[in-house]
Amino acid sequence: MLEQLETQYKDAAAALEQISDSAALAAWERDTLGRGGWLTGMLRGVGQLPAEERAAFGKRANELKVALTGAYEAREELIKAQELARNLEEGQIDVTLPGRPRPTGGLHPSTQTLRQFAHVWADMGFQVFRSREVEDDDTNFTLLNMPPHHPARDMQDTFYTTEPNVILRTHTSPGQIRAMRELGEDGTKPIRVILPGMCYRYEQITARSEIQFHQVEGLAIGRNIRMTDLKGTIAAFARRMFGADAQVRFRASYFPFTEPSMEVDVECFLCHGDGCRVCKYSGWLEICGSGMVHPVVLRNGGYDPSVWSGFAFGFGPERMTMLMHGIEDIRYFWGNDLRFLEQF
Amino acid sequence: MLIPLSWLKDFVDIDIPPELLAETLTAAGLEVDKITYIGVPQTQPAHLHATFKQDVRYPKSDHLVWDREKLLWGAVKEVKAHPNADRLVLAMVDYGADALEQCVTGAPNLFEFKDQGPLPQPLYTVIALEGAEVWDGHSDEPKRMILKERPLRGIPNRSMVCSDKELGISDEHEGIMLFHEDLGHKPGTPAQDVLGDVVLNVELTPNLARAFSVFGVAREVASLLDKPLRAPAYDVVMDGAPIDGHVAIDIRNPELNPRFTLSLLRDITIKPSPDWLQRRLKLVGQRPINNIVDVTNYLTFELGQPLHAFDYDKLVARAGGKAPTIITRLPEPGEKLETLDEVTRTLDPHNILVCDTAGVLSLGGVIGGAETEISDTTKDVLLEAASWQFINIRRTMSTQKVFTDAGARFSRGVHPSQAILGVKRGIELMRQISGGVVAKGIIDEYPLPPETVRVALTQFEIDRILGVHFSAEEAAALLRRGGFEVTVEGETLHVTAPDSRMDISSDPIIGQADLIEEIARISGYAAIPNTIIADEMPDQRPNPAIEREEKARDLLVALGLRENISYRMTTPEREAQLVPPGMASSLPEADYVRLANPISAEKTVMRHTLLISLLENARANARFNERQQLFEIGNVYLKLGKAPLPDEPRKLGILMVGKRGVPGWMHGEESGTVDFFDLKGVIEGLLDGLHIEGASYARAEHTSFHPGRSAQLVLDGQGAGVFGELHPMIARTFGFEDMPVQAAELDLEALLAKTDPLHDVQPLPLTPPVFQDIAFIVKESVTAAQAEDVIRKAGGDLLKGVQLFDVYTGEPVPAGHKSLAYNLTYQTDERTLTDKEVASVHAKIVKLCERELGAQLRA
Ligand SMILES: [Zn+2]
Asked: For the whole model, what pTM was predicted?
């Protein structure tokens, strides 16, 4: 019996030395040390041996079991290490292959810019106020100090509807009248709102002009709103939007519904003022029209212009988006070509 | 509007470089959008910085700078024949040197002076000496060249008499530039000093009517730079017989024509205008015609007071040989006029006319008539300077579709006080250059002089609006620079506006605002400090409609959809494509907002639905995209009842078509085409994200959709829109043949109104859940919603989750039946459930399903 044990031990130990993969090792373990393995079987059969042989055989069998277990574990370690090395060596993929595409959605660039505006203005206490797009002529023009045949009406080519005196709003400014009348409580409450929305102008559709575009109008009304506040507020907006050192300049201009009126330029954020094609070598980009609310408009909004004052400003989000991303064709915005939209 | 600096300097001294002047004007609201240099160098930014402490940026100009040594004012003293060439001549030019320079030239406009010996009157031009840089006159592309010594047909030649094109003044290269006067400069003077100039292109906003002329801009420059303004000369030499009895004026509508003046110039000679005048007209973009017509144009551009010249003798003839009477009036019905542009016009009832007793002469303030215009044989000129109501002129220009320089000015407003100045300066200039005699006196009918505008402005008001303090005297001084008369009384400024300031209102409040703007503008906006708002903050209000809409957008993007924004104009025909042929329309039963002046035949009304533009977008994108998942949020416009303004409800449109997954390089990962349940998954995801409870789905009755594969979203018993597979006939119309298109149009406002921002959040369970599966066979007609209702009813409180994980038809399930398999989750917070408890609930579920659904248990 003992000889058989020794022989089998030698064979098993030799076989173990030859094993080089996990599957063969597992089979060896099953046949040798496992529950049905020969060594386990022999140990189990100790009882059938003559009593005088039992002690010696049992002792030797246990010794060999310890030895084989040790050898097995060592072998296992070795094989794992070899397999890991092989894995690391052979498991190379072409990392330049594209990833599995994920289905992604996205917001329209105009929405993204509108949100950015709304976010910055909200921080300064200006809440969003939405008003209608199909407007009456009165609210769009006359109440904003542009009576019929006012020369400023020429600046805004208008879409008329078949309903008399109903037009598509040419700017978001009629929202000023509606905001004052809705929120002003007969000219007794201060107001700070922005009025984002779609506007319409009767123009040829070209790379530079569209019949439909967003505006973001702002309006602040109070008992103590001054031109210095307007300048400071716009400058603060520019710093938030274009960087802490953004420079702005204010130029006199004309809008019928503000006085004094001004255009706001920001130092060109593409060339930092050195002059480039986009800013037409002026170093400035025109970003906003603004001014102190005209007394006629205050009056039409229900406020006493000798007590109340206010300022208003207006931005063009599509134009701003075009400047920021070097887009040269405004028709991209409503074209909805996915090859354009997916770049945002 | 083109403003030559040389002309501007007639009226105001300018001691700053043109670039800085342009910047100053731009800052004050007269935007200079281009500076054109003629021969003179551009100012270097470094020079501006060093001398004026200003950093002004402007594009680098690539114009030709005339060499001060080599491009000189020259006098052609004689034109000799070229001994060897008929098509060349030798111009003998005095350019200040000891000897005349002989230039070989082919200029055709010198040929008439050939072989006449020394000319009695020299001709003046610019001579380019050897080494001078000029534009190549023979090149089609702008190309510079350096003049080199080159004999021409055997005659040595090292200089050139220049054409407009060679100097970069215009494209003119037919002949050389020739003047008949020395323009006040000796031969040899650098050409820069004679013809060099800078022209500003100034854009005017409507409030700046006063600056619509060289003198008007000069007035602004004078006030901005605080320099004196020099008025032009208005003296007239009147050597003729008195005008009285030779013409009369009859104004019928003073509110449309408040003033009309006439002056008479007799015995003139029509001829070209002198060089200086022609040159100025060319600088502002006008074509010289003859001395009389040129003066009317010149005054339009110089003073902003348009003039009109009649052939007096034609008027006399029309009056039957008697003294004509000029009548201004509105037209008789059907009256016609042939104007100078050779258009015969049927007059509109509001067109104010200049007439005589025989009929219409001209369209007042806009354009003259053909019959009485100045001709080459005109001997006597009747000169009109009038004033017209600007709104009426605007209407006339727009209804008669005529745009003239005169109309452009009158339609913005010219003060009546200007008429008398215009007629005086005009008639005197005509006299000087046409050899005529001015009749003594001017006929001046002025029935409606405007009131002088006086405004009381308080210092308090200036502070209140501007937020920056000006003393009363400081404010007064700023206003006086613009020609305002101001007296200061304590803290009040009593201001009288000059005639030029028609933009100042006599309304006390508005007038103050107008003056405050002027104070800020003249002091410079840059000088006004920046502050933060100190005023009270308005009450902040919740804005759920807008906040929830943005949340909905975010959710749709997270669900993989791409936002579209489309034109909101369409046509009823485009929208009718959503109705399959022969079927009733399910589109909104409202009228359209119809455009009275559509920009194109494809955009005539405001949309009723978002689906058409989404479909059109998808069709356009289909060429490049196998998979499109789009949404749009926006208004539709429903004209309801008699209300003039439409309802503008907000809608959510969704469109999904093509592959379910994003195609990549691995095989089979696109896994099929989107179907109803992909779309429903998006809608459920949106409802979940918005925390909208209690949505249910009913069969849709909408003809635009597949009748069996579309549903109505129901919220609290109210329909909130429809979604599903578009009717295949509609999909086909948009190019999706055999490709199902999933679409939704939901009532966004109804949806957002149901969101629950305060929805409860469940605590995390402390006890383990027990999972059990159940599968049973039911008839096909049993809906998933019915099955889930029954399971939940039977499961009671212990049943926490019901998850459908398999729907199966086919062997061994009998025909007309389906197998539904659910994952059920049992749990209670009070205790860990025992097997027995679970078994008992599970048995109840099985039983109720058998009873209420006719279910047959599978496992
Ligand atoms: Zn730039």
From this structure: 0.88
